[in-house]
Specification:
By secondary structure, the protein is α/β, with parallel strands linked by helices. It is 46% helix and 13% strand.
C-alpha cells in the first residue's frame, strides 16, 4: 500500500511542474486522494461489499469532486490532474501511466447491465480537459485525446483524437507532414488540425510536394543504377552484318594492326 502511494507521489511530481514537495502532493492533490479512496472502494467491491464500496466512492466524490465507480479498474501511476468533475464508469479500465485532466467523462452508451459499457484506456493515454469518451471500446497505448473531444469509436495506439465528434489523426502521418513542411522552408505549426479550407489546402499541397519529392528520389536512384551498369559493360567494336562490308571492315582492321 505504501509502496503504491510513494509511486503515485513520484509520478505526480514528475508530471506536474507545480508540485514542489511530496508533502504538498500528499496533502493538497485531490487526484491522489481520489485514487487512494478508490483502491479501498474497489477492494470492498471485489469481495462482495457492494454498498460499502459505493459509500466510500461517495465520500471520495464529496471530498475531491472526482467520481470513480468502485467497479472501475485503474492501473499504476495514474495521474488525475486537478480532477474536478471527472467521472469514471463501472466497467471502465484505465491502464498504467495514464493522465486525466479535469472534467473528463469515461462513460457508457448502453443500458445493459452485463455489457462492457465504458471505455478501456491503454498505457500512457492522455485525456484532455472536458473530454467525453463514451462506449465500450479501446483507446490504444500512447494515444492522445484533445480537450473537449467527444470520442465514440476506438482510437489506434499513438494516434490523436480531436473535435466533436472526434476525428482520428495518425501521429505518423502528421510527423511526416511536419518534416516535409520543414524541408520546404516554413513552420509546420502553420498547418492547423481544424476544418479551415485554407489549412486543408495547405496540407494537401504539402502532401503533394512530399509525394513528388519521393518520386524524384526514386527516378534519380534508377538513373544512377543504370549509369553504374553501363560503366561496367565492356566496349565492343561495331561489326557490320553483311558479308561484303564485314570483309572490308576486317581488311581495314588488319591494315591498322600492321601499321
Amino acid at each position: 500500500m505504501f509502496a503504491r502511494l510513494r509511486e503515485d507521489i513520484a509520478c505526480i511530481r514528475e508530471r506536474d511542474p507545480a508540485a514542489r514537495s511530496s508533502w504538498e502532493v500528499l496533502t493538497c492533490y485531490p487526484g491522489l486522494h481520489a485514487l487512494v479512496l478508490h483502491r479501498w472502494a474497489h477492494s470492498c467491491w471485489q469481495v462482495g461489499l457492494k454498498w460499502l464500496g459505493r459509500f466510500i466512492s461517495q465520500v471520495a466524490r464529496f471530498l475531491t469532486g472526482i467520481e470513480i465507480h468502485p467497479g472501475a479498474s485503474i492501473g499504476r501511476r495514474v495521474f488525475i490532474d486537478h480532477g474536478m468533475g471527472v467521472v469514471v464508469g463501472e466497467t471502465a479500465e484505465i491502464g498504467d501511466d495514464c493522465t486525466i485532466y479535469q472534467g473528463v467523462t469515461l462513460g457508457g452508451t448502453s443500458l445493459s447491465r452485463s455489457a462492457k459499457r465504458h471505455p478501456t484506456l491503454g498505457k500512457g493515454v492522455i485525456v484532455g480537459a472536458n473530454s467525453q469518451v463514451l462506449g465500450g471500446f479501446t483507446v490504444g497505448d500512447g494515444a492522445r485525446i484533445g480537450s473537449s473531444a467527444v470520442v465514440v469509436k476506438p482510437v489506434p495506439a499513438g494516434a490523436t483524437a480531436v473535435g466533436n465528434p472526434a476525428r482520428i489523426i495518425q501521429a505518423e502521418a502528421e510527423s511526416r507532414r511536419e518534416a516535409a513542411a520543414a524541408r520546404m522552408g516554413f513552420s509546420a505549426y502553420g498547418v492547423t488540425q481544424g476544418d479551415d479550407p485554407v489549412s486543408q489546402a495547405m496540407r494537401s499541397l504539402i502532401d503533394n510536394a512530399a509525394g513528388h519529392e519521393h518520386q524524384i528520389a526514386l527516378l534519380w536512384a534508377a538513373i544512377e543504377k543504370l549509369a553504374a551498369q553501363n560503366r561496367q559493360l565492356p566496349l565492343e567494336p561495331c561489326v557490320p552484318q553483311d558479308a561484303a562490308t564485314r570483309e572490308t571492315f576486317d581488311a581495314e582492321a588488319l591494315r591498322q594492326k600492321v601499321n
